[in-house]
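Q: What would this chain look like folded?
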Amino acid sequence: MDDMLKSTKENVLIFGVGQYLYEIIDYIVRDYNILAVVDNDSCKVGNFVICSDKKIPIISPSSIGKYEFDKIIVTLYFCSYQYAVYQQLLSLNIPSKKIYGWGNGKPFEYPLVNGIMKNNTWGKFFFDVNLVSVRDVGTGVQRVTNNLYRNLFTLLNDSLVPIRWFGELITAEAYRRNVIGTSFNGTERRVELTAHDKLILADLSLMEIDYFLQEAILNGTETYTIVYDLLPLSISTTFSDGYSKNFLSWLECALSKSDHVLCISRTVADDVIAFYRKHEIKRTKQLNVHYFHLGFNIPAPRGKVRPEIKDFVQRKNVFLMVGTIEPRKNHVLAIQALRRIWQNGEPEVHLLIIGRDGWKNEAFKSIIEEHDVSEHVLWISNASDAELSWAYQNTMALLYPSKNEGYGLPIVEAAYYQLPIICSGIPILHELSGDNVTYFKVDSIDSLTQTIETWLKEKNHPDVGKIKLYSWQDSAREVFNIVRGQANPYMVLSP
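A: My prediction, written as structure tokens:
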């Protein structure tokens, strides 16, 4: 029976050996028989990828012809890389119907482009969904992009056109149809920008921004680029290798070629202005810097909360941390502060951590396995919305010791649930929270330890209910007013 099931699987090749391959290969192997992995790097060719105890050979593109396959799945993340590989495979006489990308847990066909979208007398608002339309992995940037599009659509209707880059600017009609809940016929159109249009770059397309902006400049289209933060530059060691370099190129392109930049907070706007002046960005005309407020969604909790979480939270003095496990979030610092509190004679202090497994988190994974820590700390890497909502409502306070943020969504979520907050005193959190939370000195174990000990002794804490909350409708309306020219810039920077 197992052999019969295996025989029904399609045979596939995978193109690309990189970080995203290892994230998705376990999903691919469930539904497909993987024959080989293809890569252009000759240093990788001849080696193997290990998956489910199976050794999968890494081959060069010139060896593709030796295999009989149903699909070749390109796992590269950036659209420009995907397009280059797509053209390469076509040059090897591989039929386009056999070439697929990978996104949202399944292969997808590359777009069929037929016709042109161009406006000669009236304008469209073209909205970049370059990455999220292909692979939505739920990052903060993607959540903002999705929510802004949905809420701007209610204001602009069909005048708002989602687009992406695939060798040229094309519509992302499949994305739009998915948002509005109608069927898609499989055909996209090539986009020709005009001076009547406006281009909003919402998705963080590190490798494709120059294509978007060059096309806009050539056609006199006004451009609005959203900047989420400058953290890959200010704390570069907390990001994966190479990311900071690509981000720097993206930022310099955005500041030198965009007409407007829209920052997600006043703090980020101030950082952008300082960067612009320090690096003496060269422009031919002024740059308008704006900021707007991010909204947030509290999903209707559906589903059960696993007993493991409920049993843990029944303990005394359970704090909550929410966020991806990566160095910037300072999970290790929080555990070290709690360890000092245990050593100081207060063993009944516990920490529930909710956050997906991230990057550069070896120190966290090591300390959480230590005996004294494992007794007091529970990490849930795959919490449901219902479990997250329940945790906000049943823990003692939110701990948010982040090194730096562009925004800080858990602060807003905790405020919604009236959960007291202890957080690092970084500028963005002062902007968001005012005097309505308890601060400690950023990156200081001593300060966090003393702050928690004092907080536990006090009966009255700052009122998080006074924190101003914004809906995504509010956020979209602010962006709408900026793009329509109905809101003055925060700062106008001279060339």
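Residues 1-6 have pLDDT under 50 and may be disordered.
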